[in-house]
Amino acid sequence: MIAPLALPSNFMEHRPTIISLTTMHESGLRILHEAANLRMASSLDPATLQREVKGADALIIRTGGVVDAALLDCGKDLRVVGRHGVGYDQIDIEAATARGIQVVYTPGANTQSVSEHVFAFMIGLSKHLPRMMSELASGNYHARTSMTGREICGKTLGIIGFGRIGRRVGEIAHLGFGMKVLYHDIVPAPEEVELRCNARRVDMRRLLEQSEYVTLHVPLDSSTRGLINRDTLGLMRSDAILINTCRGPVVDEAALATALDAGSLWGYGGDVFTVEPPPAGHPLIGRSDVMLTPHSAAQTEEGLRNMATMIAEEVIGVLRGDPPINPVNDPFQVEHMRQQRGLAPLYKGSR
After folding, report:
1. Does the global pTM surpass 0.70?
2. Annotated catalytic residue 295
3. In the chain, how many domains are there?
């Protein structure tokens, strides 16, 4: 059982109001209900959110909705925006900082859940599970001999983005499956991390040309949007499997479908889409060389509990004046902007 947060004696003099755009695991809801007036947004459309955010001290967002400058301007009392998850491309961080609003998130909370999802794709596609399951369901038992799968043991895994999830994937690949691990990241990992994963840092071209499996673990920004496109797909091996559990727009879906049609790749595993939910007639849905899930890699009991607990504690901590453990924007810059705007400081000891 989760112990209640220790709140200062004057915290309840102004019981804060928190708006959550969607529900979350009960572990987080319990923390929020104990410390604040928690309200659920009635809809995620901009007009409704702009109306309902008025008077709120904090806002919590999951995968639905957008926190932009227009919404932040309506939330005159907002002090903190919490992202239940890792990617924060739905939040205008620059606009939040300019308005003296702290943004926090939950790195590490879903690392194991997402990492396991990557290997589900790797194994499933390597064994032709989508087609085998479909054929069996249609009564074709003898499809078992129509296609030959392969083991992932000893193969080369290329990891693009070597943060928490990328490193955990590399660790499992090396220690669990004896895979060779290459990684590409703008920042080299510490030597002990590379040794733990037996990972070698290489440039993008070399990674794509040498890897039988390529998995993406990058944030979505201007440098990663469309990172996997016609040109980069052309560098990959014809027996390669591409996996994307980070953000949909990192992959050019039309170019990917074309590459699969041409037999230039073995398969694709994706948990995310450029547009979510994906539109009817999406070129990747229903293919036998593809495994797709509806942005559900982190939807495990453990992952949801970890994310909900972490974001609830972070948001309440900021509201009571504690510096955040997992800030997205710089708390010092946030305080500076609050001072410039004549707002009360967020953190204890700030002037």
Report:
1. yes
2. yes
3. 2
